[in-house]
């Protein structure tokens, strides 16, 4: 008997390659926002003000993501998953490449940050349709008993994209001076994204539609406006799915974007050193994602996510003691634990969110819940964390994460109770 992964190798590769490309594009922006975009596009007398403005541009994509979720979800539920996934990949890849060609504030004045935010919106719009489609591509092709393990494959795009992005930044930092990196070196990761997008398109153009989408079309015509049908018939699932996914975004952006900015500007840890620690810590996330998929097929995705939220609250309480310890091994241990937790609250999402919605509105439902959660847990988190750390200390940043995790846990338990009652 052929192993399910081998029998569906092309589908799983397409879901993984696509999300790897998308998250590579997204992470090079997050890294650049933490280390170079402040002085280049938002110059100020205060480094913390520059960092806040830079993180503000990072948040623009999260505002765009629900809009992209609606647009791509609409067509994904009406005309199919394949064409929608190709379009989302092209949009985000094109926006990323153009960021690498932008003039800075020194040469274009106020137009530089304006154009940066417009292209950042394009990135977020594309990603709004990417994750949901990739998750459905995997889950809707999964054999019985393998949904969570198939659903975690596109989630692996997060650590793959992160390692590719930050490894490139590390290489550039090691081979060129700070002046050259600020002048032109930061552009290279953005321009290189076109190569990765080409690879993703080559894989995705060979796909066929998923069995679940074909079956839904045979049962009834597609909804004329999927969003209206979704909100009319499944409002509690949209609301619960959104808040259930908040914790994963909060954990990730505190352990990566915020920690990098705080470590290099406030703790004065060398940039290369901190990036190396984060690269080492992300390996633990890459391990915990498939472990969480295996556990979710055994115990249920909702149960694994619930325990992950409890662990995320603990990670929040450990944030201040580890980052302020002054010990690099302790800081690395704290980052590693946070990213292990990230795998536990991220890996099962690819199965849990699709399980909340019927196939005819599933693309819209999954994309909308995931991307609105991105605003609540991701867009606001780095900005709030910088402000909380400056005004009240790092302990308040940890309490912020614990509160976000508790919010997700309540949503998970409420939806689980509703499902059992049904």
TrEMBL record:
Gene Ontology MF terms: transmembrane transporter activity
UniProt domain Major facilitator superfamily (MFS) profile: residue ranges: 11-420
Coiled coil spans: none
Transmembrane keyword on record: yes
UniProtKB keywords: Cell membrane, Membrane, Transmembrane, Transmembrane helix, Transport
Membrane topology, from the record: Multi-pass membrane protein
Keyword Repeat: no
Chain ranges passing through the membrane: 12-40, 52-73, 85-105, 111-138, 150-172, 184-205, 238-262, 274-295, 304-324, 330-353, 365-388, 394-415
Cellular compartment(s): Cell membrane
Gene Ontology CC annotations of this record: plasma membrane
Protein name (database record): MHS family MFS transporter
Species per Swiss-Prot/TrEMBL record: Allosphingosinicella ginsenosidimutans
């Amino acid at each position: 008997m052929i192993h399910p992964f081998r029998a569906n190798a092309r589908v799983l590769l397409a879901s993984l390659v696509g999300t790897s490309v998308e998250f590579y594009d997204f992470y090079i922006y997050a890294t650049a926002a933490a280390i170079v975009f402040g002085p280049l596009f938002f110059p100020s007398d205060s480094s913390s003000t520059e960092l806040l403005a830079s993180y503000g541009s990072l948040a623009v994509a999260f505002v765009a993501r629900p809009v992209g979720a609606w647009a791509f979800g609409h067509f994904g539920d009406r005309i199919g998953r394949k064409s929608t996934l190709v379009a989302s990949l092209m949009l985000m890849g094109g926006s990323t490449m153009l960021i690498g060609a932008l003039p800075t504030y020194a040469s274009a004045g106020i137009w530089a940050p304006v154009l940066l935010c417009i292209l950042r919106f394009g990135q977020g719009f594309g990603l709004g349709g990417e994750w949901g489609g990739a998750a459905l591509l995997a889950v809707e092709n999964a054999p019985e008993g393998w949904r969570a393990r198939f659903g975690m494959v596109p989630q692996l795009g997060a650590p793959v994209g992160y390692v590719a992005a930050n490894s490139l930044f590390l290489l550039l930092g090691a081979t060129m001076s700070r002046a050259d990196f600020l002048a032109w070196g930061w552009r290279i990761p953005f321009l290189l994204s076109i190569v990765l997008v080409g690879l993703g398109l080559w894989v995705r153009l060979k796909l066929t539609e998923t069995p679940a989408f074909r079956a839904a079309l045979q049962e009834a015509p597609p909804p004329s406006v999927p969003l209206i049908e979704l909100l009319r018939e499944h409002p509690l699932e949209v609301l619960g799915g959104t808040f259930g996914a908040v914790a994963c975004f909060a954990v990730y952006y505190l352990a990566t974007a915020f920690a990098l900015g705080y470590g290099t500007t406030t703790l004065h840890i060398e940039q290369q050193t901190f990036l190396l620690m984060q690269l080492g810590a992300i390996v633990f996330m890459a391990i915990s994602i498939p472990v969480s998929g295996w556990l979710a097929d055994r115990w249920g995705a909702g149960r694994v996510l619930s325990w992950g939220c409890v662990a995320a609250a603990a990670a929040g309480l450990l944030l201040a003691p580890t980052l302020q310890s002054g010990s690099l091994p302790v800081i690395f241990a704290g980052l590693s634990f946070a990213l292990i937790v990230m795998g536990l609250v991220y890996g099962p999402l690819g199965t849990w969110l699709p399980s909340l919605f019927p196939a005819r509105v599933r693309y819209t439902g999954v994309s909308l819940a995931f991307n609105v959660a991105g605003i609540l847990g991701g867009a606001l988190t780095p900005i709030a964390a910088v402000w909380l750390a400056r005004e009240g200390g790092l302990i308040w940043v940890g309490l912020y994460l614990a509160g976000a995790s508790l919010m997700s846990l309540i949503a998970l338990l409420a939806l689980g109770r509703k499902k059992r009652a049904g």
